Amino acid sequence: MAKKSASNALVAARAEWMRLAAQIDAANLAYHQQDAPEIPDADYDALKARLLALEADFPQLAGADSPSAKVGAPAASGFGKIRHAVPMLSLGNAFDDADVADFITQIRRFLNHDGPLELTAEPKIDGLSLSLRYEDGALVHAATRGDGAEGENVTANARTIAEIPQKIGNAPKVLEVRGEVYLRHDEFATLNERLAAEGQKTLANPRNAAAGSLRQLDASITAARPLRFFAYTWGEVSAPLGATQTGALARLGEFGFKINPLTRLCPDLETLLATYAEIESQRATLGYDIDGVVYKVNDLALQARLGFRTTTPRWAIAHKFPAELATTELLGIDIQVGRTGALSPVARLRPVTVGGVVVSNATLHNADYIAGRDSFGAEIRDGRDIRIGDWVTVYRAGDVIPKIKDVDLARRPDSAVPYIFPTTCPECGSEVLREEGEAVARCTGGLICPAQALEKLRHFVSRSAFDIEGLGAKQIEAFFAEGWVKEPADIFEIEHKYAETLRKRDGWGDKSVAKLVEAINARRSIPLNRLLFALGIRHLGETAGQVLARHYTSWAAFYAAIQAAAPLEGDDWDELNSIDGVGPVLATALVTYFHNAETRASVERLIAHLTVEDVAAPSASSSPVAGKTVVFTGTLARMTRAEAKATAENLGAKVSGSVSAKTDMLVAGPGAGAKLKTAQSLGVQVLSEDEWLALIA
Hints:
Elements: H1 2-33, H2 41-57, E1 81-83, E2 92-94, H3 97-111, E3 119-125, E4 128-135, E5 138-144, E6 150-152, H4 155-158, E7 174-182, H5 185-197, H6 206-214, H7 219-223, E8 228-237, H8 245-254, E9 264-266, H9 269-281, E10 290-297, H10 300-306, E11 316-320, E12 325-337, E13 343-354, E14 357-363, H11 367-371, E15 391-395, E16 403-407, E17 432-433, E18 442-443, H12 450-460, H13 473-482, H14 488-491, H15 494-503, H16 510-522, E19 525-527, H17 528-534, H18 542-552, H19 555-564, H20 571-578, H21 583-595, H22 597-607, E20 611-613, E21 629-633, H23 641-650, E22 654-655, E23 665-668, H24 674-682, E24 685-687, H25 689-696
């Protein structure tokens, strides 16, 4: 009975995780790529915190496709791309004093460090992250964060910002300075007055204005806007800037960069929290937007030991300010059908300004949330349901869809009735099924549901997938309505079947059709990781696509392995599950997707049009463990298990949780048990901790 209860809990958690992941991904795209956040920081932070809590309770949910493993959003088109020499990662969040205390505890545990631990505290600027690369003291290029690995080339625009030096003296041969581009409140107001006087559209808030100004294709527009820049960290450097965070910041100040004057060195938790309170008390009078305080370990040697998680450093965290709230009327509830068939209820609100952004809709998550329950049946909002006509409290959190916090029952109209969730799909009329233990209701129509089919096609041509220039969501919608494109393979038939007809349509012509055909043909060759992401498989995001592509390297190897894993057992199934960052949720979704005969046939029709490029496995030329699969077991004396794993991955190794014939080496400490016996029986190389450290030295 207990086993069945645990299984039901996992199913419910997985359903909630999927909903959260979809909302967070959409929010990241709106905030980082489109400079048009749909909700405030607090909402986003709440969604992310809930997702992380689920992943802590159910580790099998935390695959490489999780939003917790992603940074920002892909670079937008219109600018050239620049690959960051050192990834631009995001920060983990703390929301209260207990989170900050836990952050320090985790650092001490990771390092096994009981001595003094100094941290810096500095305001978290609400602007646009920028990386500036200097070579021999001269600015050579500037790039936005993008997806953390690759950003937009905005060099010409960055050169117009007065607080960014064009040349610096006595600097390392290579120096990447990173910081935040922002606008002061008074200068933002003056800018909006000028735009209004010129009959142009005014800007929503300073953050959007700064991001939009830096992304102008015409650098003269950027030059006319009073952008400013605070430097707070660095990327690649050919020589160290100092031994501490404070020392390195002082060096950047000597180079001519503005360093935030509120930055403080704090010897303990109490001082950190006092600094947070001090900075928060000055928030309204600073003259620029901040949304929290960032804490960083001051000793750079300790930073190096702590290293990074997938998307965040272990040595830094952002202590966020509380969310801003607003009250408005719920005008209606709309149901949106996604590409996986999930029915997502969205609240239509009387427009209200929350944190400087006008909000007109908010997520309602699922039927339980509307009814006043969480995914496990427990009451939320003290059991108050949400009804059309209610007055609701709304909050937003930067990158995500706004959320309803509570309902004012005193203002509920007599005509308001409980909301009844649909039992048939509003798009195709198919039955809506909510599996036992699942929070999300889904349309059972599959490919016959036009909403699902269309959303899959939109995803297929999105920027991070095939990114076919001139074939965006609107064009796909039009071609889908015509019946020309029903599945991805149809896109590659447009030239032969519909080009002549298209030339005769309004808005098209010989040149535009030729450009479209050229763009489609340019994507007949596609890297394996982008193809996998483009297929729209549940749980498979960009990061997971990259992980799988690097592991299998070719389409033929991947396809054969997934087919062989179909029984959900055997060597191929075990290998798929052993890939760090995959896990049983994604593994099951992959096998299920390719086991479906109709889906498999559609993929094979697509592959017939393509050349799928191999993706090289990760390597580190100077590392003796690059490309090797390593397993750690037993007790490690000279470093924690977490530090050992992070070190191995930084050297290009693959860290697995289980031993198989494909394991290259097992690092065994005292207390090693079954894994050691399995490794010995398979002839896997076994190293002690000292031997491992000597090998990687």
